[in-house]
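sry for the spam today, last one i promise. struct tokens for design, 343 residues
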């Protein structure tokens, strides 16, 4: 079976940083760190006299959270929960907080976000790298272990049924981005851009006071399809193109699973980007809206309206919410794509 496993490196491109006179001005000195964490590449860039220690502290925070939430690290909280055979596990408060948020969002999205999907994900080989198409009977059996309502969370204690497993991959990076941003803010940083494997967390504006220019990736070619101008928000994208494999049948199987069927989502959406002040909301929603599909995603937005979104469809149409319309522009080679405004 042909396997393609592309890490979501550079899903969003940071534009407009570096290389100009800010660097010469000590007050607005730039410091940037690139590193691999949480299974992806991250680049943190901050401006100001204290940028360097602030960026290093934010990087340390990411490493700390990674140690708690890794599904493969035998010392992580998530590993302990996933190998607990029904026993109660005491976890770090940060893990309890993230799981609590993920369970709330699972309920809120009617199970489109499903933090207990891990056994099914493993059957498709997305966790092991040995991709395969599982039989329907196998999926049906595994789906019996899946369900956010099967997780008992009491303060910092977690209990699951034997065989039940959690995966915080759909919300963890967004949450970690919020934590990193908070560290920078506490240290007085007013201009920074965190690229968390393509998810962007913008702090303040660019040092010159103008908006950050965040590139929206073309899910088909990997090029930059358009620019979103933002300040003080997170921009998080989910897409099956980030991690997928091609089966012997020639079909593309993506890493976002529809918990209703146990199959990779196939609903005509190529990518969903969510823009809001909190990274954790963006991350939870980008995955959940991807699962919901175009119609339900629009309904969900109309009921909540506390975020903006951009959906790119497999047929090349773009749907975006009215609040982001004026901040988004297509690059010249994409000018023929049809933009539909959701209001
Ligand atoms: P994201 O890139 O934030 O959309 O998260 C995708 C990751 O979340 C996948 O690689 C899986 O680890 C996990 N996942 C897949 N499907 C779901 C789902 N329906 N709900 C929650 N997590 C999921
Ligand atoms: Mg997500």
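last one done:
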């Amino acid at each position: 079976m042909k396997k393609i496993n592309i890490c979501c490196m550079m899903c969003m491109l940071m534009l407009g940083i570096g290389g100009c006179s800010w660097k010469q001005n000590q007050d607005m000195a730039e410091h940037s760190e690139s590193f691999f964490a949480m299974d992806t590449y991250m680049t943190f860039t901050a401006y100001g006299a204290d940028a360097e220690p602030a960026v290093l502290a934010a990087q340390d925070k990411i490493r700390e959270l990674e140690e708690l939430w890794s599904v493969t690290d035998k010392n992580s909280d998530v590993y302990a929960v996933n190998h607990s055979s029904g026993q109660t596990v005491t976890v770090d408060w940060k893990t309890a907080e993230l799981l609590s948020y993920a369970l709330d969002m699972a309920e809120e999205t009617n199970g489109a976000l499903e933090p207990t999907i891990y056994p099914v994900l493993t059957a498709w080989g997305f966790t092991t790298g040995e991709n395969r198409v599982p039989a329907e009977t196998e999926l049906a059996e595994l789906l019996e272990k899946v369900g956010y309502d099967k997780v008992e969370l009491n303060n910092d204690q977690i209990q699951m049924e034997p065989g039940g497993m959690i995966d915080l991959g759909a919300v963890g990076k967004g949450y970690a981005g919020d934590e990193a941003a908070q560290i920078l803010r506490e240290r007085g940083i007013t201009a920074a851009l965190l690229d968390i494997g393509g998810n962007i967390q913008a702090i303040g504006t660019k040092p010159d006071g103008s908006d950050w220019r965040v590139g929206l990736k073309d899910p088909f070619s990997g090029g930059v399809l358009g620019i979103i101008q933002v300040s003080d928000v997170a921009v998080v994208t989910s897409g099956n193109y980030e991690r997928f494999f091609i089966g012997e049948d020639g079909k593309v199987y993506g890493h976002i699973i529809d918990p209703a069927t146990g199959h990779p989502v196939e609903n005509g959406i190529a990518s969903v980007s969510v823009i809001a002040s909190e990274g954790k909301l963006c991350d939870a929603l980008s995955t959940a809206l991807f699962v919901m599909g175009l119609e339900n995603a629009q309904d969900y937005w109309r009921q909540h309206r506390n975020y903006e979104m951009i959906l790119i469809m497999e047929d090349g149409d773009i749907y975006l919410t009215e609040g982001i319309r004026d901040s988004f522009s297509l690059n010249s080679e994409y000018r023929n794509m049809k933009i539909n405004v959701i209001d």
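The pocket of magnesium ion (ligand 2) is lined by residues 170-171, 238, 283, 286-287 (CB under 6 Å). ok im logging off now
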